[in-house]
Amino acid sequence: MAKVGKNIFEVEYLKKIKKRKYLKKSLKIFIILSILWVFAFYLYNTYQKIEINDNYVATRTQSTLKEQTVENVQNNSKKIADVLEETTQKVVGISKLKETGNSILSKSSESELGLGTGFIVTEDGYIVSNEHVTGSKYSRCYITLENGTNYDGTVVWSDSDLDLSITKINAKNLPYVTLGDSKSIRVGETVYAIRKSYWI
């Protein structure tokens, strides 16, 4: 009878030990899982902050680039507008009566009005244009300035191969263009052509 009671006691004791081991094991697993969960949550929050910061930086960068681009375009547009406005004052209209041959009916020469553009290169009235506009050397033509003033012009130099001419008018203190260096020009640079639209 004593032996049976002892066996029952041992069985109960073993059950308690197993239960304690199970509880300890479960507690360890719970602690490990809790640590892993906290670590995962920390990593997730860190990633979210990094992503938000990256998006913010990217957005700010794009916004800054857009602002700089708009500002550059506006500045360039203003510079171009200033250059064109200033240069337009130095561009002249050129008109000339050109002989086109003899009329069969009247047996007299016929003339037609030639129109073109040139630009002032000196303050005392030298103007560069095309020979097909002004005519050859010693030809006469009519020059109209930006302000509407008209002058008689005389071609003092021309080259038919280059299709260039220089015309002189009797005027002083004229605004004139500054000629650039052809060696500094590169392929792909923007070029603006200015002409007197009121001739059309």
Describe it.
The chain has 2 helices and 6 strands. It has 2 domains: 59 residues; 111 residues, Trypsin-like serine proteases (Thrombin, subunit H, Beta Barrel), CATH 2.40.10. Helix content is 46%, strand content 24%. The N and C termini lie far apart (134 Å). It has a 6-stranded antiparallel β-barrel with strand order 1-2-3-6-5-4. The N terminus is likely disordered. The protein has 200 residues and is of the alpha+beta class.
Relevant terms:
200 residues; six-stranded antiparallel barrel; 2 helices; 6 strands; disordered N terminus
CATH class of the largest domain: Mainly Beta
Total count of domains: 2
Task: Count the E strands.
Answer: 6
Could you list the spans in which at least 5 consecutive residues all have pLDDT below 50? 1-5, 103-110
Strand order of the largest sheet: 1-2-3-6-5-4
Write down the overall geometry.
rod-shaped
Mean pLDDT: 75
The amount of helix comes to 40-55%
Sequence of secondary-structure elements: HEEEHEEE
CATH architecture heading of the largest domain: Beta Barrel
CATH topology of the largest domain: Thrombin, subunit H
Largest sheet: 6 strands, antiparallel, barrel
End-to-end distance: 134 Å
